[in-house]
Amino acid sequence: MKQTLTDANFPRTADHRVYHLGLRPGEVANRIITVGSPSRANGIATHLDTEPKPFVLTSERGFTTITGRFRGVPVSIVSIGMGFPNMDFFVREVRECISGDMLIIRLGSCGALVDVPVGSVVIPSSSVAISRNYDFDFANPASTAEPPYRISKPAIADAFLHEERRISLTAFTYSFYSSQGRQTSFPDRNTDLIEHLREGNLNVSTLEMETFHLYHLAKCWSGGQPGRAVPAIPLTTGPVRPATSKTPPVGEATLERPLAGKDTVIRAAAVHLVYASRLSQGFITPSEVNALEDWTGLGVLTALANTEIPSDKLHVETGSVWEIKEKI
Ligand code: R1P
Ligand code: URA
After folding, report:
1. Phi and psi (nearest 5°) for 3?
2. Nearest residue by C-alpha to atom 1 in ligand 2
3. pTM of the prediction?
4. Is residue 176 part of a domain?
5. I need a surface site. Which of 1, 52, 159, 302 has the fewest CB within 10 A?
6. C-alpha 111 – ligand 2 centre gap (Å)
């Protein structure tokens, strides 16, 4: 950490940069693709317009944001690393840098529990969370009546990626290993977990580590209804209180005033790339990854650019990194 931060509740630098992503208003757009790895972000960024030159910022904590335009539409690509804590940093800190609505699509890899080849693409319409139960005694399982893993109710995606909503359930896990049913040298008591997830009443199709938290936060923000306007009741009692605000240009933001604006929504969806087949034990090759990430990245950029955001729910362009300045 190089700069002084103020406000222990929501730390920021004097020039309004958020603590972990390092961004400030005007550096991240309303339409966002979030990915796990910087190489995926850089690959997708090759599809951005050359004018204005895409803005790139890698924070000290390893979050990389690339903001530019795709076919003229402002868009950001944010690489967040792995796991739900990073998804939490991303959604909350970016929310504080953008006025208006947010459209977020996660483009991430997964393991498949359904019989599809590696390299397949799954669009999950909902997600459940599988958490390790810390009250279970993993060393002495006979000593507790608790289950070793807990499975939550589903969180639902926004419909903007689904022309026709097909039910595809993803499971988000706290670990790549134990709660995805992988066998390691730890006593994880998970040998029947995969079978349980594939059973008819659950019918989980993919396993990964961020989507549930994204869907859950989007729904919380949007008053419980993905993609719909929030009700008049305040949504949070925490750091963010949605309030009408005119977005100041970069460098002039007064942060006593939250940026989000009134009646804003966060619309979230995900595209999962099958890297691992948990049935055949196959794993994707590097050249398949490159091809798959390229065409799905282009598809997600296109979906975002084609999804309307009302003009009064867009962040102001003046002073932003996506502003096209007239050449003199
Ligand atoms: C595990 O290898 C990582 O890959 C998946 C999981 O959710 C986890 O983050 O997503 P990404 O490819 O987006 O990182
Ligand atoms: N990502 C995951 O979380 N799990 C897999 O099996 C593959 C990618």
Report:
1. -110, 150
2. 110
3. 0.90
4. yes
5. 1
6. 4
- Whether 46 and 313 have beta carbons less than 8 Å apart is answered as no
CATH, residue 104: 3.40.50.1580
The SS3 assignment for 223 reads coil
110 C-alpha to ligand 1 centroid (Å): 7
Ligand 1 neighbour 293 (Cβ under 6 A):
no
In a domain, residue 87? The reply is yes
Cβ 82 vs Cβ 11: under 8 Å:
no
What is the arithmetic mean of pLDDT over 94-117?
97
Ligand nearest, relative to CA of residue 210: 1
- Tokens representing 68? 């530019």
Measured distance CA(234)–CA(188) in Å, rounded: 41
Q: Give the chain's domain count.
A: 1
Q: Is residue 56 part of a domain?
A: yes
- Which residues are paired to 173 by β-bridges? 130
What digits encode the pLDDT tens for the residues 53-72? 999 999 999 999 999 999 99
Q: Does ligand 1 come within 6 angstroms of the Cβ of 48?
A: no
Q: Which ligand is nearest to the CA of 38?
A: 1
Q: For residue 245, is it within any domain?
A: no
Q: H or E stretch including 290?
A: helix 286-306
Helix 286-306 and helix 38-45, axial crossing angle in degrees, nearest 10: 60
**Which residue segment(s) compose the domain that 104 sits in?**
31-233+259-313
| Ligand 2 contact, 177 CB (< 6 A) | no
Indicate the length of the chain as a whole number: 328
The reply to whether ligand 1 has any atom less than 6 angstroms from the CB of 44 is: no
Tell me, in angstroms, the distance from the centre of ligand 2 to residue 112's CA.
Answer: 8
Alpha carbon of 128 to ligand 2 centroid (Å): 15
